[in-house]
Amino acid sequence: MYEAETIDIAVIGGGHAGCEAALAAARLGKKTILFAISLDSIAMMPCNPSIGGSSKGHLVREIDALGGEMGKNIDKTYIQTKMLNTGKGPAVYSLRAQADKTRYHEEMKHTLENTPNLQIKQAEIAEIFMEDNHVAGVVTTSGALYRCQAAVLCMGTYMKGRCLTGDNITESGPNNLMPATKLSQNLLDMGIRLFRFKTGTPARMNKNSLDFSKMSPQYGDEEIVPFSFTNSSEEIKREQALCWLTYTNEKTHEIIRANLHRSPLYGGLIEGTGPRYCPSIEDKVVRFADKTRHQLFVEPEGENTEEMYIQGMSSSLPEDVQIAMYRTVPGLEHCEITRFAYAIEYDCIDATQLKLSLEFQDYPGLFSAGQFNGSSGYEEAAAQGLMGGINAVRYLDKKEPIILRRSDGYIGVLIDDLISKGSKEPYRMMTSRAEFRLLLRQDNADQRLTPLGYEIGLVSKERYDALREKERLTAEEIQRVQSTTITPAQKTQELLEKYGSTPIKSGVKLSDLMKRPELDYIKLAELDENRPMLPLAVQEQVNIQIKYEGYIGQQMKQVEQFQKLENRILPEDMDYETIQGLRLEARQKLNAIRPHSIGHASRITGVSPADISVLLIYLEQRKRG
Ligand SMILES: Cc1cc2nc3c(=O)[nH]c(=O)nc-3n(C[C@H](O)[C@H](O)[C@H](O)COP(=O)(O)OP(=O)(O)OC[C@H]3O[C@@H](n4cnc5c(N)ncnc54)[C@H](O)[C@@H]3O)c2cc1C
User: Fold this and answer.
1) According to the model, what pLDDT value does residue 215 have?
2) For all residues of the chain together, what is the average pLDDT?
3) Does the beta carbon of 12 sit less than 6 angstroms from any atom of ligand 1?
4) Is there an atom of ligand 1 within 6 Å of 36 CB?
5) Which of 286, 347, 428, 493 could be bridged to 159 by S-S, CB 3.0 to 4.6 A?
6) At residue 375, what are phi and psi to the nearest 5 degrees?
7) Across 290-417, where does the E strand assignment appear?
8) Is 0.85 topped by the overall pTM?
C-alpha cells in the first residue's frame, strides 16, 4: 500500500448518486475525489433512457431546488418531454423526459471535470481504511491509499455484480462493465449487513429493423416545462423525438410460459430479490395471467444511435427465447437485437444501519447513498447522493446534519422509509408513499427547499432572490384575485356557459369562480381586465394555491400534528432494553434503528402505538428527572 493523496471526502461511485454527492461536496468547498471502476459509467443509464415520471419527477425537482445537478443535466440532454397525469390533480402531475443517454453521460462528466475542488479517478476501491473506528481513507485494488475523513458509498449495482441471461451467467456490472469484487468482503468484515438484490432490463434493438406502421406514435408536449427552476421553456425548447406504443399478445405469453423453466428467475439461479413495481415480462405473465396483453413503449436511446429500448419487457430468459418472444410483438417481427435483456444481482446494504443523515450509526464519517441503500431508480439514487454529500460536508464541519422530514419533500419520504422500515426489495418511489403529497407537489419544490439550499450553500443569492420575487408576485396576485369581483355581465355568462359552468346572479369574487372544477385562472383571463403580465410559473402558483386552498389548508393541519411527534427528539444515549413496558420486539428494533424522534419511532415496523405511549411517558419522567 502507498499513500497517494490526502483529501477531505472520497465518493465511491460515479453513478447518479455519486455524481450528486461529489458535486455537492466539492461545491461546498471540500477537496473531493469521485472514484469509479470505469469513468464510462459516469451518470450511465443502464436501464430506461428517461428521467422523471410519476413521483420521480418530484424527486428531480427537489434535487434541483436544493442545488443539485440532475434537473439541469436532463434539460440539456432531453429528446422528448411530457407532463404526466395532467388528467388528475396537481399533486400527481409529474414531468418525464426521454434522455439522450450518451449526451447525458457526457454532459455530467464534463460538469464534474470542470468543478473546482473535484477530481474524478478511474479506480476500484477495495477497502475503507478505518482508524479508531473512524473513516481515515480508502484503498484501491492497486494499493493506493487516499486519506480522507469522510466517504460516501455509492456503488449501485456493481458490488459482486452477476448478470444472467438464461444459464449464461457472468460476473459483471451493467453493460458488461467490470464489477466490484473486493469491497463487499471488507464491509462484511467491518460488520456491515449486506442483502442480495436483483433488477433487470429489456433488450435493445436496431431501429432500422422495426416496423413503426404497426405501433402508435407517442408525442412529446408542445409546451416544454423544464426540470430545473433555473431554466425557462424558451431556453431549452428543441425538436423532439418520437416514442412508440405496442403490446405483447397471447403468442408472446405462450412462449414465455413454455420456457419459464429456463428462466433463471423461475429456475432458481437468481438469489437476489427483485423490484415488485418494475416486474420482468416473465413476472407479469405469471402474476397477471388474466391479462391478454401488456403495453410496451419503444423508446430511442439517443439522437446519434439507432438503438431502441423496449420499455415494459425486461427479462432474463435465454437468448433464443428472447428472439422468439420479441418477434411476436407487432412492429418487432423482424427485430435485430443489439443487446439482449438480462437480470443483474448485486450486493446492497440493509439501510436500517444508517441514520437519517445517511451516515452509518456505527462508523462515523461513513455515508451511503443510492441503489446501494436498497432503492431503485436514477432519481432515487441522485436524491440520496445529494443528501449524503451535503451531510458528509456537515460532518466534517461539525454542523448538524440536514434531515428532510416526510412533510418537507419526497426526498424526506424516501430516506425515512429506507431507514425506518428498511426494504426487502429494491425500493421505488411512488406518490402513494407520500402522505402529504398535496403539499409536496413538483411545482412548489423551489418554495419548499430552495431557501434550505441557499442556507446550505448550494444555491446562489441570485437564485434565492429570484424565488423570493416569484413568491412576492404570487402573493400579490392572489390578493388581487381574491379582491376582484366579477359582475354577472353578458360576457361573464357567455364564458361560464362556454365551460358548462352555472351562470351567476350577482357579483362573485374571481377567486371563488376559480374554485369551480370546470374553471381556472387561465380560463377566466378574459373576464379579468386588470390582470398583470406574470411569468407562467407565478400564474401556475396562483391557480393551484387558490383552487386547492381548502385541501391545502387541511393538509397543513395534518402536518402540524405530524410535526408535534417529529419534534419530540429522542436522546441518542437511550437504552431501550431498560425501558419497562416496552415489548421485546420494540426494544430490539429501537436499539437497532435508534430513531431520531418519537415520530420516527412510530414508523418503525414492530413498534406499536402502545410502545409509543410508553416512550412518551418515559420521556416525561426523564424530563422531570
Ligand atoms: C440492468 C439494470 C436494470 C435496471 N432496471 C431498473 C428499473 O427497471 N427501474 C429502475 O428504477 N431502476 C433500474 N435500474 C437501476 C438504476 O440503474 C439504478 O438505480 C441507478 O443507476 C443507481 O444509481 P447509483 O448511482 O446508485 O449506482 P450506479 O448507477 O449503479 O453507479 C455505481 C457506480 O459505482 C461505481 N463503483 C461500484 N463499486 C465500486 C468500487 N468498489 N470502486 C469504485 N467504483 C465503484 C461504478 O463504477 C459506478 O460508477 C436498473 C439497473 C440495472 C443495472
Assistant:
1) 98
2) 96
3) yes
4) yes
5) 347
6) -95, 175
7) 295-300, 307-311, 337-339, 342-349, 366-368
8) yes
Q: At residue 568, what is the residue type? A: R
158 alpha carbon – ligand 1 mean position (Å): 7
Reported as a single tens digit per residue, the pLDDT across 225-262 is 999 999 999 999 999 999 999 999 999 999 999 999 99
Alpha-carbon distances, residue 454 vs 12, 405, 439, 448, 585 (angstroms): 26, 18, 21, 12, 42
Mutate to test the pocket of ligand 1, among 40, 158, 296 (most ligand atoms within 8 A of CB): 158
Where residue 298 falls (left for φ over 0; alpha for ψ -120 to 50; beta otherwise) is: beta
State whether the beta carbon of 157 lies less than 6 angstroms from ligand 1: yes
Neighbours of 239 (CB within 10 A): 8
Count how many Cα atoms sit within 13 Å of the Cα of residue 259 in the half-sphere of its side chain. Answer: 25
With residues binned 3-state (H G I as helix, E B as strand, rest as coil), the percentages for the chain, rounded to 5, are: 40, 20, 40
**Residues 108-118: pLDDT tens digits?**
999 999 999 99
Cβ neighbours for 358, distance < 8 A, ≥ 6 positions apart: 367, 368, 369, 373, 384, 387, 388, 391, 415
Q: Is 225 left (phi over 0), alpha (psi -120 to 50) or beta?
A: beta
Q: Is the CB of 278 under 6 A from ligand 1?
A: yes
| Cα-only R_g, the chain | 26
Q: Which atom of ligand 1 is nearest to the CA of 380?
A: 19
